[in-house]
Amino acid sequence: MFDRYQAGEQAVLVHLDFPDESTREDLTEFKMLVSSAGIEALTVVSGKRNTPHPRFFVGSGKADEVAEAVRLFGANVILFNHSLTPSQEKNMEALCQCRVVDRTTLILDIFAQRARTHEGKLQVELAQLRHLSSRLIRGWTHLERQKGGIGLRGPGETQLETDRRLLRERMINIRKRLEKVEVQRQQGRRARARAELPTLSLVGYTNAGKSTLFNVITQAEVYAADQLFATLDPTLRRISLPSVGRVILADTVGFIRHLPHDLVAAFKATLTETREAELLLHVVDIADDRRTENIEQVEYVLKEIEADEVPQLIICNKIDNLDDIEPRIDRDIDGMPIRVWLSAQANIGIDLLFIALAERLGTHVVKHQLNIPPRAGKLRGELYKLNCITSESYDEEGYCHLEVKLPSREWQRLVKSEHSEIAEFIEH
């Protein structure tokens, strides 16, 4: 149904500067988007306008310049660093005799290339269908009439109406399948809630280094690359933190300024992990000149998915790209960590992150001396998994004498679990 890019496509890029910050886009970021999509940028046609031209988005003279660049360089696609209306796309295609793709469609295509899981593919397709539904008229203007001919005579439905109906039916079908996936996610969240496992969610602007940090912390092998939207499908891992115990760490899709609303709506189910997290690790590329604007964009998306009230710990990443910056922890007036300066790529300052997380998540720590009989060897193994044993000895009868130190949350979990007899083993 969709025109998908093939690696090796060559494009003319179009970028305009507007005085209004709300409509301004970053050219460097746009070039990274184009590269992430596997497209070769032949040239950039840029200019300045106060407002978009209603017919071509760019002015008529600039539109002729784009058409000349397409002819001169032999490009097969024109990429706009802006969102175009269907009529603007149609008019530019008619003038340049070349396919025109706007920023929103480009981002959707990158997401389609990156999706790996069944849920991710469904979410991207739903976003694409929503975007396509407003552009169907472009492809069927020559068929805006009733179908005729043998086998095609019917109640008078036009080709355009048929396609709109099929599109609606497909979107309804995808939503039903996504609802089933969401039920499975809710069951997983309920299971973690019963186990009292807190969730930490990595959020941040795309290419800030979230997946690299995720891999360092969890020893996982999540795909990480210096490109936009390297991560699309959320990944969850269980880790053990000193003085905290077991927690769930979630790696999520990166945000970007003017993220297509259809994408935000489609990925709301996935981003529920962020909304219900106990703490957000907001990863910031501290070496990026536009870090302040990037932080604002992340905060905007967090508000849109109703996660702006979740506590945050700012991770100032990539300090190895700056001079005279040492890893450190910044604290508020109460001494609570609010920022950690580190480099995930260079593995610098990760120990400080663990310290900060322990302080932010740390609860009351309990100490107990246990006298565990030989029949409860499974409990001893569970305590070793929690890394909470400070001393261990055995007596002549085979009883294991343990001294443990662990968060009260983990202790209560053990008391409520299959090891509920643990309270009987406390030495008084």
Question: How does the SSE layout of this entry go?
Answer:
Blueprint: E1 9-17, H1 27-36, E2 39-48, H2 60-73, E3 77-80, H3 86-96, E4 99-101, H4 103-114, H5 118-133, H6 136-140, H7 159-194, E5 199-204, H8 210-218, E6 235-241, E7 245-251, H9 261-266, H10 272-275, E8 279-285, H11 291-304, E9 312-317, E10 328-331, E11 337-341, H12 350-361, E12 365-372, H13 377-385, E13 389-394, E14 400-407, H14 408-416
Parallel strand pairs: 1-2, 1-3, 3-4, 5-7, 5-8, 8-9, 9-11
Antiparallel strand pairs: 6-7, 10-11, 12-14, 13-14
Helix pairs in contact: 1-4, 4-5, 5-7
In short:
This protein has 428 residues and is of the alpha/beta class. The protein is 39% helix and 21% strand.
Written account of the structure:
By secondary structure, the chain is α/β, with parallel strands linked by helices. It has helices spanning 27-36, 60-73, 86-96, 103-114, 118-133, 136-140, 159-194, 210-218, 261-266, 272-275, 291-304, 350-361, 377-385, 408-416, and strands at residues 9-17, 39-48, 77-80, 99-101, 199-204, 235-241, 245-251, 279-285, 312-317, 328-331, 337-341, 365-372, 389-394, 400-407. Helix 11 links the parallel strand 8 (279-285) and strand 9. Helix 4 (103-114) packs antiparallel against helix 5 and helix 5 (118-133) packs antiparallel against helix 7. The longest helix is centred in the middle third of the chain and has 36 residues, at 159-194. The relative contact order is 0.08. It holds the Pfam family GTP-bdg_N. This is GTPase HflX. It is found in: Cytoplasm. Monomer. Associates with the 50S ribosomal subunit.
